[in-house]
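We were asked to recover a plausible sequence for a given structure. The inputs and outputs are reproduced exactly as logged, with field labels preserved.

PROBLEM: sequence recovery
POSITIONS: 424
GIVEN STRUCTURE:
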């Protein structure tokens, strides 16, 4: 049985949590493969909203396994808060949540290092969520990290103390004013470690292999988006993991040949939170309206998301890198009411028209070229079937399918689980 992937194709927040929840009934295992609590995945059902950060978005379904893979970085403190919230909602994760022993831990000092690094950058800051993601992946690749499996060993506190001490001298090195009470942070951390220890730690690559042998179906849930990928994103304004299809192989231990469908998810427009180039960004009332109607505020940090038109150059690039086989278009309802809609189909770069993503997409290097479309007035949020779609929306969808040469199989018309239209 193949492993299907669900990946964000833009700068994150495409609606991955919602669609994973919608698709979970078709799978046995839902697995996160990268990122950590920088992610905020929103699910809405029965009139309630739930935000998940590290726990996979299949967790609300009974009898499904939810796996946190080796490529994920876990902050035990945030993890514990997620578990507490789920328990308050009647979800007991003990029997359904599995954690890879090879996943790395975010220490309190990783978070402090993130803050020190960002502060030292001043205006050039990445706009990190400050969850310690960068420093933790740096320790992973630097071969200094602490993994979930380590906390089962007797000497792990010595390892912890050595690393935390090193981090403190690194924080001092930044020479910025970061106030902290490490003792308090560590009390909270070790308390959360004890809660983590009550969960099931596994050798997840073996688990996935056995699941495959037994014919179980697996959906790998991406975090962030392709344009935040450490290799292929808008570096250095990216996150510290591979958010693209390849990341699912290294983050779960699956072979490329085991990958089945690659679901690429995108908003009908574009958003970005944090710093970095964004060619189609709108600074006018249209952008503001998108933000208000789409409630574009970060699910993790509450920051306002920058909004702009759909960028097909960037979307095509993301489809290529990931090998997307099916597309899902989110938040079509947010575009209702605009007189005209625009889609960027090419860039002007060094006086030439190009349709690929160049090395730099800074405003000094490129200018977007737009195709305009007639908008639609109809409210999409109550629609149940694509036959109800206004003509202008069908034109918009057909244009994207033709340009990307990939079918759009799902159109989402609202945040709720039920506001999901499957196209045939
Ligand atoms: P994720 O990180 O990719 O899971 O996405 P987020 O949860 O960070 O952001 C997506 C936001 O859009 C959330 O507030 C969702 O509830 C909401 N949302 C998802 N799909 C739709 C949709 O089709 N229409 C509208 N209006 N909101 C949606
Ligand atoms: P989900 O999974 C949107 C952005 C941050 C910042 C950059 C680096 O909800 O789509 P980091 O904390 O990783 O050091 O931040 O990446 N970022 C996200 N933006 N959605 C996310 O996750 C993000 N995770 C990180 O805003 O610009
Ligand atoms: Mg999000």
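RECOVERED SEQUENCE:
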């Amino acid at each position: 049985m193949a492993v299907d992937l669900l990946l964000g194709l833009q700068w994150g927040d495409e609606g991955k949590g919602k669609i994973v929840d919608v698709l979970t009934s078709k799978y046995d295992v839902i697995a996160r493969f990268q990122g950590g609590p920088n992610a905020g995945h929103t699910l809405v059902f029965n009139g309630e909203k739930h935000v998940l950060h590290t726990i996979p978005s299949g967790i609300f379904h009974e009898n499904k396994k939810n796996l946190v893979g080796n490529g994920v970085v876990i902050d035990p403190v945030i993890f514990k808060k997620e578990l507490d919230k789920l328990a308050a909602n009647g979800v007991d994760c003990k029997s359904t949540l599995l954690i890879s022993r090879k996943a790395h831990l975010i220490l309190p000092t990783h978070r402090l290092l993130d803050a020190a690094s960002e502060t030292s950058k001043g205006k050039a800051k990445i706009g990190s969520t400050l969850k310690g993601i960068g420093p933790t992946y740096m320790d992973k690749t630097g071969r200094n990290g602490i993994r979930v499996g380590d906390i089962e060993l007797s000497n792990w506190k010595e390892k912890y103390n050595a690393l935390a001490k090193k981090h403190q001298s690194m924080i001092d090195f930044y020479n910025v004013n970061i106030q902290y009470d490490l003792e308090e942070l560590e009390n909270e951390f070790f308390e959360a470690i004890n809660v983590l220890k009550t969960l099931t730690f596994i050798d997840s690559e073996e688990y996935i292999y056995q699941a495959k042998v037994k014919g179980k179906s697996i959906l790998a849930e991406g975090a962030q988006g392709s344009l935040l990928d450490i290799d292929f994103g808008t570096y250095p304004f990216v996150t510290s993991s591979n958010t693209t299809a390849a990341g699912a192989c290294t983050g779960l231990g699956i072979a490329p040949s085991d990958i089945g469908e690659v679901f690429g998810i995108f908003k009908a427009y574009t958003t970005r939170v944090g710093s970095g180039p964004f060619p189609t960004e709108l600074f006018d009332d249209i952008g503001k309206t998108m933000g208000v109607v789409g409630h574009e505020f970060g699910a993790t940090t509450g920051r306002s998301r920058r909004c702009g038109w759909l960028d097909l150059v960037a979307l095509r690039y993301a489809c290529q890198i990931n090998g997307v086989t099916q597309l899902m278009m989110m938040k079509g309802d947010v575009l209702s009411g605009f007189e005209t809609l625009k889609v960027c189909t090419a860039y002007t770069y060094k006086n030439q028209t190009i349709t690929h993503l160049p090395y730099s997409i800074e405003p000094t290097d490129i200018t977007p070229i737009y195709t305009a479309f007639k908008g639609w007035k109809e409210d999409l949020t109550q629609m149940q079937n694509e036959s109800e779609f206004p003509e202008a929306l069908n034109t918009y969808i057909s244009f994207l399918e033709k340009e990307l040469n990939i079918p759009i199989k799902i159109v989402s018309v609202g945040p709720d689980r039920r506001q999901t239209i499957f196209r045939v």
